[in-house]
Amino acid sequence: MELSTTIKPVGGQDEALPTAAPEPAKKVFLKTYGCQMNVYDSQRMGDALAADGYVPTDAIEEADLVLLNTCHIREKAAEKVYSELGRIRKLKSERAQAGLETVIGVAGCVAQAEGQEIIRRSPVVDLVIGPQTYHRLPDAVRRVRSGEKVVETDYAIEDKFEHLPQPRKAEVIKRGVTAFLTVQEGCDKFCTFCVVPYTRGSEVSRPVAQIIAEAEKLADAGVREVTLLGQNVNAWHGEGPDGKEWGLGRLLFRLAEVPGIARLRYTTSHPRDMDDALIEAHRDLPMLMPYLHLPVQSGSDRILKAMNRRHTAADYLKLIDRIRAVRADIAMSGDFIVGFPGETDADFEATLEIVRQVRYAQAFSFKYSQRPGTPGADMGGQVDEKVKDERLQRLQALLAEHQREFTVQMIGKEIELLIEKPGRQPGQKVGRSPWLQPVIVDETAGEIGDIIQVRIMKAGVNSLHAERM
Ligand code: SAH
Ligand code: SF4
Ligand code: F3S
After folding, report:
1. What average pLDDT does the chain have?
2. From the CB of 334, is ligand 1 less than 6 Å away?
3. Neighbours of 444 (CB within 10 A)
4. N or C terminus of the chain: which is more exposed, having fewer CB within 10 Å?
5. What are the beta bridge partners of residue 246?
6. 467 CA to centre of ligand 2 in angstroms
7. In sequence order, what are the beta bridge partners of 46?
8. Sign of the torsion formed by the C-alpha atoms of 349, 353, 359 and 364
9. Does the pLDDT of residue 437 top 90, yes or no?
10. pLDDT by residue (tens digit) across 352-378?
11. For the whole model, what pTM was predicted?
12. How far is CA 14 from each of CA 55, 98, 142, 441, rounded to the nearest angstrom?
């Protein structure tokens, strides 16, 4: 689930800009690594900085502030930061020679995990800021500009979301008709391989009213599809306006009432938090898209136990049966780890077996990476890198086969398509199917934001081609 995006530049006036006569606009270059929650966080950091007069730029050499929003999930992800900082060091000294000041900040999960150590290892860094303190970002940048090195990695007592400005309409419009909305953060599950409980802290749910207000703001800017985010999004809970305790299922029903919103999704879920109300939402709420990312990690009960997943392979399969019983067309997506400590050939075969049973439409698979501070890192029976490579290849070949099967069976089907943006080729537009597949149509098929009825004509490698009905 790794992706790397750059927040696009903003143009023109924006409602959140201060009214006091501003100094010439400063530019911020934001680079995002890791999961969708980081993508969302980068957007919110952009919002917070805009209130201080910063405008985004795509050109790092023009940036007065460079922010890397980092991921700590696997060693490779974390190491990317240091190679990027190496390049940035050169850039900063070139700019300094031209008399330009550049503030270098590291945010995200590496910032939270390594704190001060980042500045020790990479003195070019001026600012280290963890995910729980983004509302303090503008102030932290000001402190750096007056000569301090700043490390902000406390778990803030105040609610970050209450202190972050609302998403800005102009920015939301620029990002398009689909949007992320974080409703839950952190994790109390402590899977033995995973750093998230340490980098994101314990599970916190945003209040209902805050979520609805943000969804309305998004809808007002033309957003048609909202994806609710959380490290354990289906653990979300909160008090509803009716005074009752709500779970994610109930929240989805409420969000479905927001005028303008036509599609809802949520990610990532933990199998242990799929409650009846959420499964019923898949049955009764057509706006909830038939796609579910439900990581299982391994098909071996022994390994699941060592991972502290606290469910068995059979529990997982039973759960999927229940979901498919109410929503037959649901596409399943999953995450897998190969080579967890102690994983034998037989354990790995069990993973292949669960994959064969579920037949995932989409999947992400990784070699186990030893993460400092997690129980897995100190376990005996660490698996040889070569064995991990072989297992990953076999698993990915099987997953790819199923994925292809899922794509090809779309041909001839009539589906609803949300048109998202112009296509890469002239004369085309691209949208998403309910199953999250990119679908290419002729540009005359409809306007961006329209939901149209199409027939799938053919399947390319990464996308489908369709004609308007
Ligand atoms: N909260 C989600 C997962 C968040 S991390 C869940 O519980 O499923 C995203 C994915 O990264 C995980 O599902 C897992 O497959 C992978 N991952 C996490 N830690 C890892 C590690 N140490 N080595 C390899 N993959 C890892
Ligand atoms: Fe990590 Fe497990 Fe929490 Fe997911 S549930 S974020 S894998 S500890
Ligand atoms: Fe990475 Fe942090 Fe997300 S470790 S996967 S950016 S929660």
Report:
1. 93
2. no
3. 9
4. C
5. 238
6. 41
7. none
8. negative
9. yes
10. 999 999 999 999 999 999 999 999 999
11. 0.93
12. 10, 30, 21, 33
- Examine the pLDDT at 180 and tell me if it is beyond 90: yes
Helix 345-358 vs helix 385-408: crossing angle, to nearest 10: 10
Contact 235 CB / ligand 2 (< 6 Å):
no
- Ligand 1: which of 335, 336, 368, 378 to mutate, judged by most atoms within 8 Å of the beta carbon? 335
**What distance in angstroms lies between residue 6's CA and the mean position of ligand 1's atoms?**
23
Pairing relation of β-strands 225-229 and 178-182?
parallel
Write out the two tokens for 205: 């749910």
Q: What is the largest CA-CA distance in the chain?
A: 68
Distances (CA, A) of 262 to 241, 391, 448: 22, 41, 13
Residue type, 290: P
| Single-letter amino acid code for the residue at 244 | K
d(CA 306, CA 310) in angstroms, rounded, equals 9
* Residue whose C-alpha is closest to residue 225's, from 3, 436, 4: 436
Render pLDDT for 200-253 as a digit per residue (tens, 0 to 9): 999 999 999 999 999 999 999 999 999 999 999 999 999 999 999 999 999 999
* Tokens encoding 246: 């709500």
In terms of Cα–Cα distance, which of 175, 192, 142, 199 is closest to 376?
A: 192
* Four-CA torsion 364, 370, 375, 379, nearest 10 degrees: 110
For a ligand 3 pocket test, name from 33, 73, 337 the mutation site with the most ligand atoms within 8 angstroms of its C-beta.
Answer: 73
Residue 125 is classified by DSSP as -
Asked whether 261 and 215 are in contact (CB, 8 A), the reply is yes
Please say if the pLDDT value at position 13 is more than 60. no
Phi/psi of residue 84, each to 5°?
-65, -40
Q: How long a stretch of residues is the chain?
A: 469
Q: First-to-last CA distance in the chain?
A: 34
CA 314 to chain centroid, in Å, comes to 28
Task: Decide whether any atom of ligand 1 lies within 6 Å of the 73 Cβ.
Answer: yes
Q: Note the pLDDT tens digit of each residue in 266-313.
A: 999 999 999 999 999 999 999 999 999 999 999 999 999 999 999 999
Count H helices and E strands in the chain, helices first: 15, 22
- The whole-angstrom separation of Cα 103 and Cα 264 is 38
Nearest CA to ligand 2 atom 5: 189
Give the per-residue pLDDT at 21.
Answer: 54
197 CA distance to ligand 1 centroid (A)? 11
Q: At 4, is the pLDDT very low, low, confident or very high (cuts 50, 70, 90)?
A: very low
Residues 411-427 have pLDDT tens digits of 999 999 999 999 999 99
Q: Is pLDDT above 90 for 24?
A: no
3-state secondary structure of 187: coil
